[in-house]
Amino acid sequence: MHAVIPYATAALLFGLGVYGVLRRRNAILVLMAVELMLNAVNLVLVTADVTVTAALGHRGGVFALFVIVLAAAEVGVGLAIVLQFYRMRAAVQVDEVALHHEPEAR
Q1: Count of CA atoms in the C-beta half-sphere (13 A) of 6
Q2: Which residues cross the membrane (predicted)?
Q3: Domains and CATH numbers, the chain
Q4: Cα radius of gyration (the chain)
Q5: How many CA atoms within 13 Å lie on the side-chain side of 95?
């Protein structure tokens, strides 16, 4: 197997993920784009594990499992935040999220 093909695929996946994070307004689609980036990193880790096993041993698969666990935690927390925001505002547009709370005038 040529190592260039998985690396090029990972670069394409990561580029699509970055594009999705920068251009999408829907929070669910942004989370999906982040998942694409994490899957690209997993592909790089597993490919590096297969191609460079003589020097370091099999560690890429272990790191890939940690990234999968991190992705699962990110999805759980991210979806909880998005669902709570949807319940409050009935929209999940990222650019409509108020990052600060203005005090009420008395």
Answers
A1: 16
A2: 6-22, 29-56, 62-83
A3: 4-94 (1.10.287.3510)
A4: 18
A5: 5
DSSP code for 102: P
pLDDT at position 12: 95
Which residue in this structure is represented by tokens 């297969």?
A: 50
Structure tokens at 48: 């590096």
Contact between 16 and 36 under an 8 Å Cβ cutoff? The reply is yes
Taking phi over 0 as left and psi of -120 to 50 as alpha, with beta for the rest, 90 belongs to left
Summarize pLDDT for 36-85 with one digit per residue, the tens.
998 898 888 888 877 776 566 667 777 778 888 888 888 888 888 878 87
Alpha helices, DSSP H, located in the chain:
4-23, 27-51, 53-56, 60-89
DSSP-derived letter for residue 95 is: G
